[in-house]
Amino acid sequence: MRPSDALRTAAALVYPRRCPFCDRVLGWLPACPDCAGELARLRLAVPRLPTTEHLLKNLTGAAAVWRYDGCVRRAILRFKNGGRACYGQELGAEMARVIFGCNCVWRHGIITFSGVPPLARFDLAVPVPASGRGRGYNPPELLARPLARALGVPLETRALCKTRVTHSQKGLTATERLHNLAGAFRVKDAGRIEGRRVLLVDDVITTGATVSCCASALVKAGALEVFAVTAAQTQR
């Protein structure tokens, strides 16, 4: 075992894996048996999202794992609002498994991936920038880390940034959300984006305004294509 793996194994013993949906200690279990039934009910039959339900401007497509309801909604709200940041690894690993068919194996507190489909080819993963709420971590970035590892691509955590403070999106229509976010994102270094196929990562897709505006900035910087993935999607 490599020294880095030994450290992560020791950390897993002190801070064991927990289910992001009910907080049960998972240990070496691949998934939580208590939440399996509800998660199966909330899981989307097809991860690929139809363009009739969301704004997917400047995107080649988008995908999600679950409907934003029940234990999924509670887990993501905890994750985003001061909950355990380690939930991101569990949720991101499940995104890799369901959306891209990656095989996730937990051993001694360390997750490894295999079985990436040939069609899941991206040049880099880019998380949606932090909202600026001062939580000390960026939820989309924590989801993107295991995804990038699973797909074998670099993670560009600072590729996108927000150029200004925006109003809360809660309660806004799709058009109002687009107007609120127009011009709110930019690419710091176009050289890292130009000619690349970008996997854009967020936690929840509601109307699609956020991923559309982020994709607009990436396309302007020369991205060859942008595909968005999220843990959950709301139904309009």
Please characterize this protein's 3D structure.
The protein is an alpha/beta fold and about 240 residues long. It contains 7 helices and 8 strands. It has helices at about 5-15, 35-40, 70-80, 85-100, 140-150, 175-180, 210-220; strands spanning about 60-65, 105, 110-115, 125, 160, 185, 195-205, 225-235. It has a 4-stranded parallel β-sheet, with helices on both faces. Helix 7 links the parallel strand 7 and strand 8. Helix 6 (about 175-180) packs parallel to helix 7 (about 210-220). The chain is globular.
- As a percent range, the share of helical residues equals 25-40%
**Which sheet architecture does the biggest sheet show?**
4 strands, parallel
Total E-strand runs: 8
| Number of helices, where a helix is a run of at least 4 consecutive DSSP H or I residues | 7
This entry's quaternary arrangement is single chain
The outline comes out as: globular
Rg, nearest Å: 17 Å
What distance lies between the first and last C-alpha atoms, to the nearest angstrom?
48 Å
Give the mean pLDDT.
Answer: 85
Strand order of the largest sheet: 1-8-7-4
Unreliable runs, pLDDT <50, ≥5 residues? none
Strand content: 15-25%
Element order, helices and strands? HHEHHEEEHEHEEHE
Overall structural class, as computed from helix and strand content, comes to alpha/beta
Keywords:
8 strands, 7 helices, four-stranded parallel beta sheet, 33% helix, alpha/beta, 236 residues, two-stranded antiparallel sheet
Set down the secondary structure blueprint.
Blueprint: H1 3-14, H2 36-42, E1 61-67, H3 70-80, H4 87-100, E2 103-107, E3 110-114, E4 124-127, H5 139-151, E5 160-162, H6 174-181, E6 185-187, E7 197-205, H7 209-220, E8 225-233
Parallel strand pairs: 1-8, 4-7, 7-8
Antiparallel strand pairs: 2-3, 5-6
Helix pairs in contact: 4-5, 6-7
